[in-house]
Predict the 3D structure of the following.
Amino acid sequence: MKASSQWPRLIDQGSICRLTAPLAEFCSGLAVGGALRPDWPAFLQCRGTNSLSQPDRQSPRCDLTEARSDDPAETDCRPVGPSPRLALSKAARGLASAGMSSLFDLTGRDIWIVGGAGYLGTAVVKALVQHGATVRCADLADRAQTMVEREKLAAGVTPETLDAGDDAETLRFVRDGLAQRGVPAGLVVMTYKSFPKSVSALQPADFDAANHVNLTSSFILAREVGEAMAEKGRGSVVIFSSMYGTVAPDPGMYPAPILPNPIEYGVGKAGLQQMARYLGVHWAPRGVRCNTISPGPFPFPSMQEGNPEWMARLRAHCPMGRVGRPDEMAGTVIYLLADASSYVTGHNVAVDGGWTAW
Ligand SMILES: NC(=O)c1ccc[n+]([C@@H]2O[C@H](COP(=O)([O-])OP(=O)(O)OC[C@H]3O[C@@H](n4cnc5c(N)ncnc54)[C@H](O)[C@@H]3O)[C@@H](O)[C@H]2O)c1
């Protein structure tokens, strides 16, 4: 497909491509005021591929994760109208025009995510961008920067360094963010700290240090950002708990020398669930919601590859008979941040393949 001046060009920035012209300029009829009409998905066909890609409704951005160009620098695209495969039925269009299509839309919303450069955080950050959010991703040292570069997310994500275990640094992170970006629509806290020690070996100082990151730092972040949200009358705070904040690890699953999931971890995670209940109720009259997510088994790839027996035990213990994939974590975060969950607060959502259901 030859380049045409009538067609917008996409500058490849990884999975996110920026149109050089506002979508409205060439998509008249499909676009309103620079944004795609929510009830009419337009599709772009890109040079070098037959795939179709649905542009984000927040012009001028489109997601090319499915439709990759063969030219890493530039892609010529043309609108081809609604995809026959995905064209909305009349009934669906009715729902869309009634606003139902925007239930999970985060377009134009600023989301801060702390501890977002990790195994699950990376999948969450990608999903946030795909749902239209702008993202401020903070993590230890250069982890957020490295993740953003590795995943080619620079167009939608601002990486920052933060040690959330340092109270002064955390307060500065919130203050600077409010001054520079304004009050975010959402806050996601994904940090944790624990020590690979048995109950008898764990020192009180270890217990305090873990609690400080898991509980105190999460409290500071949630309170400072949540209060700013409450001033505006809206916002959603999502804190990562764990299945081990709900149930204890089964010692039978951890034959020596494997150590059970440590006590301070689960104690902190249980506390986070109560924190979300408390803050959810506390802020409820002022429009701010607070919930926890409790992941089940999502072992790191290194753990999966090097421990076949352990993996078999995990799978056997899980009603769904398998461990979770990082992308399976993203949907619940989107749900809790978006309007789809506007009446959900003080709640803990288990994403654990049924681990805590029996
Ligand atoms: N992976 C699982 O199986 C699982 C299960 C239950 C709960 N969780 C929870 O999900 C969340 C994400 O876990 P993950 O599996 O992606 O782990 P991860 O270690 O890959 O991610 C955690 C991230 O938090 C960051 N972090 C830690 N301390 C920090 C601090 N003081 N300041 C800033 N950043 C800090 C880490 O650098 C890391 O990038 C955690 O809260 C974890 O407890 C995970």
